[in-house]
Write a structure and sequence with these properties.
Layout lengths: L1 H6 L9 H11 L10 H35 L8 H8 L4
Length: 92
């Protein structure tokens, strides 16, 4: 499968990795009790995705705050692009 994915990455979407794990576990005699249910695995995936999204949002907030701080300290008095832009007033 990995070799096919190098040629066509979309082929990986055909593989149901949860079923692969279940079937492999059965084949080697793994006790079913050590595997999470599909529902439990989905809940964990959703929690991980939510945590990642929150981390991205926090990073964006931090970057936005840094940009606002930089802008608040910008020189609006000198002859520069920012001062000329500020003197034009709001766009119509």
């Amino acid at each position: 499968m990995a070799e096919l994915a190098k040629i066509n990455p979309g082929v990986i979407h055909k593989l149901d990795t949860d079923s692969v794990v279940d079937e492999y576990a059965k084949a080697i005699g793994t006790p079913i009790s050590i595997l999470r249910s599909s529902e439990e695995a989905q809940i964990i995936r959703e929690q991980v995705a939510e945590a990642q999204q929150q981390q991205i949002q926090m990073q964006q907030i931090t970057e936005g705050a840094a940009a606002a701080k930089d802008l608040s300290q910008a020189d609006l008095e000198g002859n520069n692009a920012l001062s000329r832009l500020a003197s034009q007033g709001p766009a119509a």
